TrEMBL record:
Name recorded for this polypeptide: Uncharacterized conserved protein YbjT, contains NAD(P)-binding and DUF2867 domains
UniProt organism field: Lutibacter oricola
A Gene Ontology term for the protein's cellular component: membrane
Main location: membrane
Gene3D superfamilies: NAD(P)-binding Rossmann-like Domain
UniProt domain NAD-dependent epimerase/dehydratase: residue ranges: 3-108
Superkingdom of this protein's organism: Bacteria
Entry's localization field: Membrane
Record InterPro entries: Epimerase_deHydtase, NAD(P)-bd_dom_sf
Length: 223
């Protein structure tokens, strides 16, 4: 399996990357970032892209991949709907369009969030934009697509969030991690990564995955 990952400098994307690099079914990983990971691995290839709204300029580098795990995202705090939609919907559409043009048989996974509004008509701005983005991906025509509506996440292996206040919360809650890991509503960066890989290996009829479904998918194993 050959996969593309965006957002691998963030908490979710880094967790997905770590699982892909160690998984025996993943033979190559292409990460697309604005800034370099400064990491070397036999499976790893990196492309730097300063303008994700012009990712079509590198679409020839996206050929022959089996999956794209789109983990890149921004907080809606301090942004109006136009600004947030640019970083959420427009960038995702540019990525999906570019990959679909060269890889229609790809599995495309989008990291969304719990509470996303599929109707696109609710009062919460970020939820409407995420819902519009999900609908666009699901209707694009990919071989398969999954929406990862993540909620509470416990990072593993020293992975940190790029958002300062989230890191503060993670430090405060760290003593509770053993208890939290037993909760179905909580997932981990490791489980998200394995679930992403398993979405390709074990296709599911359920396309919108909340944390409990992510954990179930992560638990699937070959017989």
């Amino acid at each position: 399996m050959k996969v593309i990952i965006t957002g691998s400098t963030g908490m979710v994307g880094k967790g997905v990357l770590m699982e892909c690099l160690k998984h025996p079914k993943v033979e190559q990983v292409l990460v697309i970032n604005r800034s370099s990971l400064n990491m070397e691995h036999p499976k790893l290839k990196e492309i730097l892209c300063n303008d994700f709204l012009n990712i079509s300029s590198i679409k020839n580098d996206l050929k022959n991949y089996d999956a794209c795990f789109h983990c890149m995202g921004v907080s809606s705090v301090g942004k109006n709907e136009e600004e947030y939609a640019k970083f959420t919907y427009s960038i995702t559409k540019e990525l999906a369009d570019s990959i679909f043009s060269v890889n229609p048989n790809c599995v495309f996974n989008y990291v969304s969030g719990t509470g996303t509004d599929s109707t696109e008509k609710g009062k919460v701005m970020w939820a409407r934009v995420k819902g519009k983005t999900e609908n666009m991906v699901l209707n694009k025509g990919f071989k398969d697509a999954y929406m990862f509506r993540l909620g509470g996440i416990i990072p593993a292996k020293g992975i940190k969030s790029k958002t300062g206040w989230i890191n503060i919360l993670l430090i405060l809650f760290k003593p509770l991690y053993p208890l939290m890991k037993k909760m179905k509503s909580i997932t981990t960066s490791e489980q998200i990564g394995v679930a992403m890989i398993n979405s390709v290996l074990f296709p599911s009829e359920l396309k919108v995955l909340e944390n409990p479904e992510v954990n179930l998918l992560a638990g699937k194993r070959e017989l």
